[in-house]
Amino acid sequence: LSWASSQGLEMIQATDTSVGWAVRNITRWPKNVMSFRNKAQMDVAWSDFNIDRRELYFHYPTGSNTIPKEGIIGNFARPRKLPRWTRMDKANLTAGVVYRSSGTEFVQYAGDSNGRVYLMHVDTASDWAGSPFTGRIITPYHVQKRAYRMKEYNWSFVDVQTEGNYDVRVNQAIMRRGLPAAAGDNVTALSVLGAESGWGEGEWAEAVWGGTTYAGERIRPPTVSRGAGLAHLIYSTRWFRLNTEAIEYMLKSDSLAA
Protein backbone atom coordinates (compact mmCIF):
# COMPACT_ATOMS: atom_id res chain seq x y z
CA LEU A 1 0.00 0.00 0.00
CA SER A 2 1.43 3.38 -1.02
CA TRP A 3 0.03 6.91 -1.04
CA ALA A 4 1.07 10.53 -1.61
CA SER A 5 1.65 12.89 1.30
CA SER A 6 3.16 16.34 1.76
CA GLN A 7 6.54 14.60 2.20
CA GLY A 8 6.34 12.60 -1.02
CA LEU A 9 5.26 8.98 -1.40
CA GLU A 10 4.76 6.79 1.65
CA MET A 11 4.49 3.02 1.75
CA ILE A 12 3.61 0.36 4.31
CA GLN A 13 6.31 -2.30 4.36
CA ALA A 14 7.04 -5.32 6.47
CA THR A 15 9.61 -4.76 9.21
CA ASP A 16 12.83 -6.74 9.58
CA THR A 17 11.17 -8.87 12.25
CA SER A 18 8.85 -11.76 11.58
CA VAL A 19 5.76 -9.69 12.40
CA GLY A 20 4.82 -6.05 12.14
CA TRP A 21 4.59 -3.29 9.57
CA ALA A 22 6.07 0.19 9.27
CA VAL A 23 5.43 3.32 7.20
CA ARG A 24 8.43 4.41 5.15
CA ASN A 25 9.02 7.34 2.83
CA ILE A 26 10.06 5.76 -0.47
CA THR A 27 10.91 8.98 -2.37
CA ARG A 28 14.06 10.02 -0.56
CA TRP A 29 16.22 10.01 -3.69
CA PRO A 30 13.79 11.79 -6.10
CA LYS A 31 12.87 14.33 -3.38
CA ASN A 32 14.55 17.22 -5.22
CA VAL A 33 12.67 16.37 -8.42
CA MET A 34 9.34 16.22 -6.59
CA SER A 35 9.96 19.47 -4.69
CA PHE A 36 8.49 21.44 -7.63
CA ARG A 37 5.08 19.81 -7.43
CA ASN A 38 2.04 22.04 -6.98
CA LYS A 39 0.74 20.84 -3.62
CA ALA A 40 -2.42 22.93 -3.97
CA GLN A 41 -3.45 20.89 -7.02
CA MET A 42 -2.51 17.42 -5.87
CA ASP A 43 -6.11 16.31 -6.25
CA VAL A 44 -5.37 15.81 -9.95
CA ALA A 45 -2.25 13.73 -9.31
CA TRP A 46 -2.59 10.06 -10.21
CA SER A 47 -0.65 6.82 -10.21
CA ASP A 48 -0.87 3.24 -11.37
CA PHE A 49 1.14 0.09 -10.79
CA ASN A 50 2.29 -2.36 -13.44
CA ILE A 51 2.52 -5.63 -11.52
CA ASP A 52 4.21 -7.41 -14.42
CA ARG A 53 7.07 -4.91 -14.53
CA ARG A 54 6.96 -4.17 -10.78
CA GLU A 55 6.82 -0.44 -11.53
CA LEU A 56 4.89 2.39 -9.88
CA TYR A 57 4.00 5.41 -12.06
CA PHE A 58 3.24 8.68 -10.26
CA HIS A 59 2.26 11.87 -12.13
CA TYR A 60 1.73 15.26 -10.51
CA PRO A 61 1.34 18.98 -11.37
CA THR A 62 4.32 21.31 -10.97
CA GLY A 63 4.68 25.07 -10.51
CA SER A 64 1.37 26.74 -11.30
CA ASN A 65 0.09 23.90 -13.51
CA THR A 66 -3.37 22.56 -12.75
CA ILE A 67 -2.85 19.25 -14.59
CA PRO A 68 -0.11 16.64 -14.11
CA LYS A 69 3.07 17.92 -15.73
CA GLU A 70 5.83 15.52 -14.65
CA GLY A 71 6.05 11.89 -13.64
CA ILE A 72 8.43 9.51 -11.94
CA ILE A 73 8.76 5.73 -12.13
CA GLY A 74 9.71 3.52 -9.19
CA ASN A 75 10.93 -0.01 -9.84
CA PHE A 76 10.16 -2.48 -7.03
CA ALA A 77 11.94 -5.50 -8.51
CA ARG A 78 14.32 -5.82 -5.54
CA PRO A 79 12.53 -7.56 -2.63
CA ARG A 80 12.49 -5.76 0.75
CA LYS A 81 14.44 -2.80 -0.63
CA LEU A 82 13.49 0.74 -1.57
CA PRO A 83 12.56 1.25 -5.22
CA ARG A 84 14.91 2.57 -7.85
CA TRP A 85 13.62 5.78 -9.43
CA THR A 86 13.78 7.44 -12.81
CA ARG A 87 11.92 10.32 -14.46
CA MET A 88 9.11 9.77 -16.94
CA ASP A 89 10.14 10.85 -20.45
CA LYS A 90 6.66 12.10 -21.37
CA ALA A 91 4.97 15.18 -19.88
CA ASN A 92 1.29 16.08 -19.41
CA LEU A 93 0.00 12.55 -18.86
CA THR A 94 -3.32 13.00 -17.07
CA ALA A 95 -4.66 9.44 -16.73
CA GLY A 96 -3.64 5.83 -17.14
CA VAL A 97 -4.67 2.24 -16.61
CA VAL A 98 -3.08 -1.21 -16.36
CA TYR A 99 -5.17 -4.31 -17.00
CA ARG A 100 -4.70 -7.97 -17.79
CA SER A 101 -5.81 -8.65 -21.34
CA SER A 102 -5.35 -12.42 -21.53
CA GLY A 103 -3.69 -14.94 -19.29
CA THR A 104 -0.66 -13.29 -17.73
CA GLU A 105 -0.29 -10.47 -20.29
CA PHE A 106 -0.64 -6.98 -18.80
CA VAL A 107 -1.41 -3.97 -20.99
CA GLN A 108 -0.74 -0.37 -19.94
CA TYR A 109 -2.24 2.78 -21.46
CA ALA A 110 -1.73 6.47 -20.68
CA GLY A 111 -3.53 9.57 -21.93
CA ASP A 112 -2.33 13.18 -22.16
CA SER A 113 -3.95 16.61 -21.88
CA ASN A 114 -4.41 16.77 -25.69
CA GLY A 115 -6.68 13.75 -25.73
CA ARG A 116 -4.10 11.32 -27.09
CA VAL A 117 -3.94 7.78 -25.74
CA TYR A 118 -0.65 5.85 -25.76
CA LEU A 119 -0.03 2.11 -25.56
CA MET A 120 3.10 1.70 -23.45
CA HIS A 121 5.94 -0.86 -23.48
CA VAL A 122 5.72 -1.75 -27.16
CA ASP A 123 9.04 -3.19 -28.29
CA THR A 124 8.63 -2.03 -31.88
CA ALA A 125 7.76 1.60 -30.99
CA SER A 126 10.56 4.14 -31.33
CA ASP A 127 8.78 7.44 -30.68
CA TRP A 128 6.18 9.31 -28.63
CA ALA A 129 3.66 10.70 -31.13
CA GLY A 130 6.37 11.35 -33.71
CA SER A 131 9.10 12.49 -31.28
CA PRO A 132 11.85 9.83 -31.29
CA PHE A 133 13.23 8.33 -28.11
CA THR A 134 16.86 9.04 -27.30
CA GLY A 135 18.78 6.25 -25.62
CA ARG A 136 21.81 7.32 -23.59
CA ILE A 137 24.71 5.62 -21.87
CA ILE A 138 26.81 7.79 -19.55
CA THR A 139 29.93 5.95 -18.47
CA PRO A 140 31.74 6.67 -15.20
CA TYR A 141 34.72 9.01 -15.32
CA HIS A 142 37.76 6.85 -15.95
CA VAL A 143 40.53 8.27 -13.78
CA GLN A 144 43.04 5.43 -14.32
CA LYS A 145 43.13 4.81 -10.54
CA ARG A 146 44.81 8.19 -10.07
CA ALA A 147 42.02 10.70 -9.56
CA TYR A 148 44.30 13.54 -8.42
CA ARG A 149 46.89 13.24 -11.15
CA MET A 150 46.90 15.06 -14.50
CA LYS A 151 46.64 12.96 -17.66
CA GLU A 152 46.90 13.73 -21.33
CA TYR A 153 44.34 11.85 -23.42
CA ASN A 154 45.28 10.95 -26.97
CA TRP A 155 42.21 9.08 -28.22
CA SER A 156 39.43 6.79 -27.13
CA PHE A 157 37.92 3.88 -29.04
CA VAL A 158 34.19 3.17 -28.73
CA ASP A 159 32.64 0.06 -30.26
CA VAL A 160 28.86 -0.25 -30.56
CA GLN A 161 26.43 -2.69 -32.09
CA THR A 162 23.28 -1.57 -33.94
CA GLU A 163 20.39 -3.02 -35.90
CA GLY A 164 21.15 -1.11 -39.10
CA ASN A 165 23.06 1.74 -40.67
CA TYR A 166 22.44 4.86 -38.57
CA ASP A 167 24.33 7.26 -36.35
CA VAL A 168 25.39 6.63 -32.78
CA ARG A 169 26.94 9.76 -31.32
CA VAL A 170 29.69 9.96 -28.73
CA ASN A 171 30.61 12.93 -26.57
CA GLN A 172 33.95 12.90 -24.74
CA ALA A 173 33.70 14.61 -21.37
CA ILE A 174 37.09 15.43 -19.83
CA MET A 175 37.11 16.13 -16.11
CA ARG A 176 38.51 19.67 -15.81
CA ARG A 177 37.85 20.46 -12.17
CA GLY A 178 39.45 23.79 -11.28
CA LEU A 179 40.71 24.26 -14.87
CA PRO A 180 39.44 26.37 -17.79
CA ALA A 181 36.41 24.72 -19.39
CA ALA A 182 36.83 22.96 -22.73
CA ALA A 183 35.38 25.00 -25.60
CA GLY A 184 33.86 23.78 -28.84
CA ASP A 185 31.78 20.83 -29.92
CA ASN A 186 33.27 17.42 -29.18
CA VAL A 187 30.44 15.21 -30.44
CA THR A 188 31.52 12.50 -32.90
CA ALA A 189 29.10 10.42 -34.99
CA LEU A 190 30.21 6.80 -35.27
CA SER A 191 30.09 5.38 -38.79
CA VAL A 192 28.26 2.24 -37.75
CA LEU A 193 28.13 -0.34 -40.54
CA GLY A 194 25.28 -2.43 -39.22
CA ALA A 195 24.49 -5.11 -36.69
CA GLU A 196 27.93 -6.73 -36.61
CA SER A 197 30.14 -6.48 -33.56
CA GLY A 198 33.49 -4.82 -34.04
CA TRP A 199 35.16 -7.28 -31.68
CA GLY A 200 34.38 -10.47 -33.58
CA GLU A 201 32.25 -13.49 -32.76
CA GLY A 202 32.99 -16.51 -30.56
CA GLU A 203 33.17 -17.58 -26.96
CA TRP A 204 35.31 -16.00 -24.25
CA ALA A 205 39.04 -16.08 -25.10
CA GLU A 206 38.24 -17.42 -28.57
CA ALA A 207 36.96 -14.32 -30.35
CA VAL A 208 39.16 -12.81 -33.03
CA TRP A 209 40.53 -9.53 -31.68
CA GLY A 210 39.15 -6.80 -33.92
CA GLY A 211 36.60 -9.06 -35.55
CA THR A 212 35.72 -9.14 -39.21
CA THR A 213 33.92 -5.80 -39.26
CA TYR A 214 34.80 -2.42 -37.83
CA ALA A 215 31.88 -0.96 -35.93
CA GLY A 216 33.83 1.47 -33.78
CA GLU A 217 35.99 4.52 -34.26
CA ARG A 218 38.98 6.21 -32.71
CA ILE A 219 37.97 9.58 -31.32
CA ARG A 220 40.47 12.30 -30.49
CA PRO A 221 39.71 15.18 -28.12
CA PRO A 222 38.97 18.11 -30.47
CA THR A 223 40.04 20.89 -28.12
CA VAL A 224 41.72 20.24 -24.77
CA SER A 225 43.29 16.87 -24.05
CA ARG A 226 44.47 17.30 -20.45
CA GLY A 227 42.35 16.51 -17.41
CA ALA A 228 41.85 14.29 -14.38
CA GLY A 229 39.49 11.80 -16.05
CA LEU A 230 37.46 11.04 -19.15
CA ALA A 231 33.88 9.81 -19.58
CA HIS A 232 31.78 9.00 -22.64
CA LEU A 233 28.21 10.13 -23.31
CA ILE A 234 26.87 7.79 -25.99
CA TYR A 235 23.41 8.34 -27.46
CA SER A 236 21.17 7.64 -30.43
CA THR A 237 17.51 7.76 -31.41
CA ARG A 238 17.79 4.11 -32.51
CA TRP A 239 18.71 0.91 -30.67
CA PHE A 240 22.39 0.33 -29.90
CA ARG A 241 24.56 -1.70 -27.55
CA LEU A 242 27.92 -0.61 -26.15
CA ASN A 243 30.39 -3.45 -26.63
CA THR A 244 33.49 -1.82 -25.22
CA GLU A 245 35.48 1.37 -24.81
CA ALA A 246 39.22 1.91 -24.62
CA ILE A 247 41.12 5.05 -23.66
CA GLU A 248 44.74 5.96 -24.46
CA TYR A 249 46.37 8.31 -21.97
CA MET A 250 49.68 9.44 -20.56
CA LEU A 251 50.27 10.31 -16.92
CA LYS A 252 51.49 13.82 -16.36
CA SER A 253 52.13 15.91 -13.25
CA ASP A 254 50.99 15.07 -9.72
CA SER A 255 49.04 18.35 -9.53
CA LEU A 256 45.97 19.37 -11.52
CA ALA A 257 47.10 22.44 -13.43
CA ALA A 258 46.38 23.87 -16.86
Short description:
The protein has 258 residues and is mostly beta strands.
Oligomer: single chain
Q: How many beta-strand runs?
A: 20
State the helical fraction: under 10%
Tell me the strand percentage band.
35-45%
Shape category: globular
Radius of gyration: 23 Å
Question: What does the secondary structure layout of this molecule look like, with pairings?
Answer:
Blueprint: E1 2-5, E2 8-14, E3 21-25, H1 31-34, E4 46-50, E5 55-60, E6 70-75, E7 84-87, E8 93-102, E9 105-112, E10 117-119, E11 127-128, E12 131-132, E13 135-138, E14 151-162, E15 168-175, E16 187-190, E17 216-219, E18 226-227, E19 229-236, E20 240-251
Antiparallel strand pairs: 1-2, 2-3, 4-5, 5-6, 6-7, 8-9, 9-10, 11-12, 13-19, 14-17, 14-18, 14-20, 15-16, 15-19
Descriptive overview:
This protein is mainly beta and 258 residues long. The chain contains 1 helix and 20 strands. It has a 4-stranded antiparallel sheet, with no helix packed on it. Strands 13-19-15-16 form a 4-stranded antiparallel sheet, with no helix packed on it. It starts with a strand and ends in a 7-residue tail after the last strand.
Descriptors:
mainly beta
